[in-house]
Design brief:
By secondary structure, the protein is of the alpha+beta class. The protein has 3 domains: 5-100; 106-208 and 304-361, Alpha-Beta Plaits, CATH 3.30.70; 215-294, Double Stranded RNA Binding Domain (2-Layer Sandwich). It is 50% helix and 20% strand. It has helices spanning 5-24, 28-66, 72-100, 121-141, 171-175, 261-296, 327-331, 336-359; strands spanning 111-117, 145-153, 159-167, 180-186, 197-207, 221-226, 242-247, 252-256, 304-309, 314-317, 322-324. Strands 2-3-1-5-4-9-10-11 form an 8-stranded mixed sheet. Strands 6-7-8 form a 3-stranded antiparallel sheet, with helices on one face. Strand 7 (242-247) and strand 8 form a beta hairpin. It starts with a helix and ends with a helix.
Amino acid sequence: MSLPREKLDRLVERWETIQSELNAGVAQSARTKLTKEFSELSPVVAAINAYNAAARESADLSALAQDPATDREMAEMARVELAGLKARLAELEGKLQIELLPKDAADNKSAILEIRAGTGGDEAALFAADLFRMYQRYADLHKWQTEIISISENDLGGYKEIIASVTGAGVFARLKYESGVHRVQRVPATETQGRIHTSAATVAVLPEAEDVEIDIRPEDVRIDTMRASGAGGQHVNKTDSAVRMLHLPTGIMVVSAEKSQHRNREIAMKVLRSRIFEAQRQKLDDERSLARKEQVGSGDRSQRIRTYNFPQGRVSDHRINLTLHKLDAVMSGDALDELIDALITDHQATLMAEMATVDGL
């Protein structure tokens, strides 16, 4: 994929224009939007400037090496530096191409994390709890804030379902690759004969929507108050404070069962807004994906994204055929970045290949 010179010049020109406007002083309403655009353009412009500087240096060295007036020793030194600079130029071009890839507008958002036990009964619920602790520890390592929105436990301390908000810069950009079916292979604590069982849990990661992004009309929402139910224990609400919120146009339903009915309304609306935002976003993604597949072919993957094999101490991500023999480090959150970084790299490579294919049509 060749670098689009005109586009690069326009991006730098736009960045300089915004910088001048911000320095000159603008109204607060416009300043917020301009500051955001300036922040998004800054890494792209930095990559452009670094590449341009190296390209100019390469041209100067090439001219020096080929100039008949240059003495032999100086010309040889220029050729040696030029050889090293070619590798540097290729690296800078690769970084610049990545910066130019289409960005997910939701990448910088916080996220709603939903984990539900799948097949496997109590063991699946225990695995769901393990996954939540993994993400909670991962969030701590990145200095993100995690807040549990709702939780449904079984008698063994596993989670039938847990929903939490993860707040911080760039949360969705990394956690979005975790959505899908996670499978575990291990000997459950309830297994008396040492047999390995296979269970599963589903993970959904939604970008957290802001009030200004999703306008939910009061007449489009039906709110019911009800009594929470469950197996008993401290996590079961004994009052009629649980809130069920139904968005009539989409059929999306959210239930929150904390102790405070007022807090439940806030939580339910927060989750509802994020689910509607994700549904709209997914619809647009599907439309774009269909158009892209008509040009570059299908690239669908299996819904099962990852397997955690405890007897062998390994984690395998099926989307990129990557296996890490460091299960404990992944489950503690410490090595999860190795998987996510590899997924991001694969995604970027796919986008670059698609853009190159479309450009070549």
